[in-house]
Design brief:
Elements: H1 9-13, H2 32-40, H3 45-58, H4 63-70, H5 80-96, E1 111-114, E2 117-122, E3 129-132, E4 136-147, E5 152-162, E6 167-174, H6 183-188, H7 198-211, E7 215-220, E8 224-228, E9 231-236, E10 239-242, E11 245-247, E12 251-252, H8 274-284, H9 289-300, E13 311-315, H10 322-330, E14 344-345, H11 350-359, E15 364-370, H12 376-395, E16 401-402, E17 408-409, E18 417-422, H13 429-432, E19 435-439, H14 447-458, H15 461-478, H16 482-494, H17 503-526, H18 531-557, H19 561-574, E20 578-581, E21 596-601, E22 604-609, E23 612-618, E24 621-624, H20 626-639, H21 648-657, E25 671-675, E26 678-686
Parallel strand pairs: 4-7, 7-12, 13-18, 13-19, 14-15, 15-18, 20-23
Antiparallel strand pairs: 1-2, 2-3, 4-5, 5-6, 8-9, 9-10, 10-11, 16-17, 21-22, 23-24, 24-26, 25-26
Helix pairs in contact: 2-3, 3-5, 4-5, 8-9, 8-14, 8-18, 9-10, 9-17, 10-14, 11-12, 16-17, 17-18, 19-20, 19-21
Length: 727
């Protein structure tokens, strides 16, 4: 039988089970191994190769997949090119005879891979022409989706080998930057080379992708709950905590300080120290507020099932150990956290804090050290950052983002609970209403108890308790019980609190209390705490929450912002924290009434100003530099433990509505006055609101001038004043 005529193929290929349009006949299965060995040995090479080629075509292999195999079947006395020419004719004939799979797209591959190099195949009249693209071979081994719960990005993990067999380092490259090949010199240096020509880079990228069969991975960059194959899992740096334990195959990639959200695997003894830990927190601060902080730590973990809209602000002066206490609370999420190492501080930008609060899903996110000091612009920036972050937590809303392509993305909204610390409290009554403010006085912290808690944190006992609680919570969530448990705890707690006061304040305290309630329920189910002990800790938590509620109500029922401002203004001057000058900047009449100290000297009496200059006394009126006055008053009120947190605009409005502040003809609270030979912006209040001027000497008549307007001057913006100190 001749093998050079295509008509002879029917006899050869009939035994193959191929989709021929012929009556069904008995067939023999091709023994590819035996056929291949025979061809390699040169036995009936054309017969055996045509059988192999037909079977390869029938299984859907492309031309160049077949041609790549062909070089291995080159017999002695023939070149690789001659072999490929023969095989290509066999492939073409097989396809014409209909051996290809039904519906197969007959698109030839453009690339070949041999000797650890990549080649571009170009068709020519003489047959395929090889162009070497690289002196290396590369492969994408992982295709990774990195998700933060809102935004996704892809990376490729690439490895390779040089033509001489030298391995190349493994690295990650962003998927959208892969085709540019800029990663080549960055990661593999000059030794990995690409054929010169801009067109060839695209071919190299395409060839590597064609060659690769990557394993797909998902990596999470946030903490908190996810649904993994129908089961709830809590993400931590070590993996995912479920009802079954710690699944380390779930991959997380927490950046920076977030990598310390690192919980151990749950174990049988993980809650044995529950009573000891709660007892220490009960004894930590003399008013029992430590238990409310524990409630915050555990309530935060349940935000996935019921949003947590409360922030906790731990306020105290230097020496109250507020930062160290917050470190113990944060240590429930990882043993590396302590007073010297917390997730964030207030020196960061609002954007950074907002993003981290979003990534710390279902967790406490501590922002340390709010101190409103520095230049007016620095203080303003700090208050704005606090306003932005704490309001986003309270309202569960934020500002949408724009990408570089002007695409609108969702806002980064805090997904856990914010614990803030500071000497000062951010401005704004409405903002403070979104927080539970826990003040710590000097001497109120039990340092021995604090040391004991720090040791438990270092031993990972706090984090171990949290891990076991989360495993229990996962089990409750899998059974669809967790939302009911949270609601029941909330209802049980809120009915115990005073019914008077702001509704939001009661809800905020209830959130913290419910965290303790659920922790105690977990301990009871495990048998790690008795009913008597549970009753004790519930009573102590309720007592602490009631005290906070009563304090907040008393503050709400106190004088208005206007009354408090005037009271603090008068007291600050009387105690020498501030002073008023005369219109000319000198000592006014009755200096002791306006913050000046009179001392005796060898030459008679002398007067000296005390504290900061906050304005001028002119006849029966005070021209007040509002920013200077507020700086003094807020510091003074904080020392008293009753911080005046309202903004400048809010206080001026309150003064105006109370009839304590005169407006200009256009309704503005700021006025232009002449003092010390220049025009300055000030607010004008009657002097008798601050001091009984009937009992003190008055300024000379010529100084008792009326306020002057500067015609044509643009209106001032009370909301965002441009402040220039008149001093």
């Amino acid at each position: 039988m001749s093998l050079k005529r295509i008509e002879d193929w029917d006899d050869i290929l009939e035994p193959l089970q191929l989709p021929l349009n012929k009556p069904a006949e008995p067939f023999k299965t091709l023994d590819r191994v035996a056929t291949s060995e025979a061809a390699l040995n040169g036995e009936n090479w054309h017969d055996n190769m045509r059988n192999l080629v037909a079977s390869w075509v029938a299984t859907g292999q492309t031309d160049y997949e077949i041609l790549t195999k062909a070089e291995h079947y080159t017999l002695s006395g023939y070149t690789v090119d001659q072999t490929k020419d023969d095989i290509q004719r066999m492939v073409d004939s097989a396809r014409q005879k209909g051996f290809a799979k039904s519906g197969e797209i007959l698109q030839q591959s453009s690339y070949m891979y041999h000797h650890n190099q990549i080649y571009l195949m170009k068709d020519s009249r003489a047959g395929p022409k090889e162009i070497r693209l690289t002196n290396f071979n590369a492969e994408i081994i992982y295709e990774t989706t990195l998700t933060n719960g809102m935004d996704n990005s892809k990376t490729f993990t690439v490895e390779g080998v040089l033509h001489n067999g030298t391995p190349l380092s493994k690295f990650d490259v962003e998927a959208n930057a892969f085709d540019k090949l800029e990663w080549l010199p960055t990661n593999w240096g000059a030794k990995a080379q690409v054929t010169v020509g801009s067109m060839y880079k695209a071919h190299v990228a395409a060839a590597i992708k064609e060659r690769s069969n990557p394993t797909e991975r998902t990596v999470y960059s946030h903490t908190g709950w996810i649904d993994k194959n129908g089961k709830f899992c809590y993400l931590t740096n070590r993996g995912g905590i479920s009802a079954a334990g710690l699944n380390e195959e779930i991959e997380t990639e927490l950046q920076g300080s977030l990598s310390d959200y690192d919980l151990p695997a749950p174990n049988e003894n993980g809650a044995k120290k529950l009573f000891e830990i709660l007892q220490h927190f009960l004894n930590l601060v003399d008013d029992g507020t430590g238990l409310l902080l524990v409630g915050a730590a555990f309530r935060a973990t349940l935000s996935e099932f019921k949003k947590c809209t409360v922030s906790v602000f731990l306020q105290g002066t230097t020496g109250t150990f507020k930062t160290a206490i917050s470190g113990c609370v944060q240590a429930f999420y990882g043993k590396e956290f302590n007073g010297s190492h917390l997730p964030e501080n207030w020196s960061s930008t609002g954007n950074a804090m907002e993003k981290k609060a979003f990534l710390c899903k279902d967790a406490v996110f501590t922002i340390d050290d709010f101190v409103a000091r520095g230049t007016p612009s620095e203080v303003s920036r700090l208050h704005k950052a606090a306003e932005r972050v704490l309001r986003a937590q309270g309202n569960q809303s934020g500002r949408d983002r724009l990408t570089s392509t002007t695409e609108v993305r969702g806002a980064y909204i805090p997904q856990g609970l914010i614990l803030a610390t500071g000497e000062d409290i951010p401005n704004g009554h409405s903002l403070q209403a979104r927080c539970v403010i826990l003040s710590i006085n000097k001497g109120a912290t039990n340092t021995d108890t604090l040391t004991a808690l720090q040791e438990l944190a270092e031993q990972e006992s706090l984090a171990q308790l949290m891990s076991n609680f989360l495993s229990w919570g996962a089990d409750q969530a899998d059974q669809s019980k967790i939302k009911g448990l949270i609601s029941a705890a909330h209802d049980d707690c809120i009915k115990e609190l005073p019914t008077s006061g702001h509704t939001r304040m009661r809800d905020n305290l209830t959130s913290l209390m419910s965290g303790i309630w659920l922790l105690l329920q977990f301990g009871k189910e495990r048998g790690d705490i008795s009913d008597e002990e549970i009753a004790k800790f519930k009573a102590a938590t309720l007592n602490a929450a009631t005290k906070v509620a009563e304090l907040q109500m008393s503050v709400d029922q106190e004088a208005s912002d206007a009354d408090r401002f005037i009271e603090y203004l008068s007291t600050s001057i009387a105690m020498g924290d501030a002073h008023l000058a005369s219109k000319n900047g000198t000592c006014p009449s009755a200096p002791s009434a306006w913050g000046w100290k009179i001392t005796g000297t060898l030459h008679g009496e002398a007067t000296c100003a005390q504290g900061a200059k906050i304005g001028w006394i002119v006849g029966k009126e005070i021209y007040l530099d509002m920013k200077a006055a507020l700086s003094v008053i807020k510091t003074f009120s904080t020392r008293l433990g009753n911080h005046l947190g309202s903004s400048e605009r809010a206080i001026k409005k309150a003064l105006g509505e109370a009839g304590m502040l005169s407006k200009d003809g256009e309704g503005r609270y700021n006025r232009k006055v002449t003092v010390e030979g220049r025009r300055v912006s000030a607010v004008c209040i009657p002097a008798n609101l601050v001091m009984d001027i009937e009992k003190i000497e008055r300024e000379p008549t010529e100084d008792n001038e009326t306020l002057e307007e500067i015609e044509g001057e643009p209106p001032e913006d009370d909301e965002t004043p441009k402040y220039k100190s008149p001093f």
